[in-house]
Design goal:
The protein has four helices and five strands; from the N terminus they run βαββαβααβ. The protein is of the alpha/beta class and 145 residues long. The chain has a five-stranded parallel beta sheet with strand order 3-2-1-4-5, covered by helices on one side. Helix 1 (12-23) links the parallel strand 1 (3-7) and strand 2. The longest helix has 25 residues, at 85-109. It is globular, with a radius of gyration of 16 Å.
Length: 145
Amino acid sequence: MPRALIIGAAGQDGRLLTEFLKARGYDVRGWTRPAGNSALPANARPVNLLEGDVVARELTREEPDEIYYLAAFHHATEDEIRISEEDLLQRSRDVHVVGWRHVLRAVEAAGGEARLFYASSSHVFGVNDGEFQNEETPFAPNSPY
C-alpha cells in the first residue's frame, strides 16, 4: 500500500486530497502547523517546518512514498492583516522557502526516494490577462504568497 504524507493536512486542499488518496488505497499521514486552530484530521500531527531536525526525524518516521507540500501562509485573516508587511514577508518566506528546504533536505538524507509535489500559487504569474497559464508563462509575482 503506498504511503502519502500531506504537509498542510488541516487545510481544505489537504482534507480533500486525503479523501481522494484514501479512496485509492493509500495510507495517508498528515502534518499540520503546531498552532493550528482547527481540529486535526485523522492520522495528522503538528510538526514545525522551521525546525529542520524535527522535519528530518518525522519524515524518516513516516517513510512516505509521496509527499504533498500544501503548507501555505495566507495573508487573508484579520489578525494577519494587522501585522507589518515585513512580518508578512517573513512568515511567507518561512513557510514557502525555509519549510520546503527542510523537507527537501530531509528527503535527500532519507535516500531521496519519495516523490514530491509542491503546490504553488497562481500569484507567481501576477495579474492574469485572460490567457491560460502553463509551464512557459513567465513569472511576474505580485504578492509574497
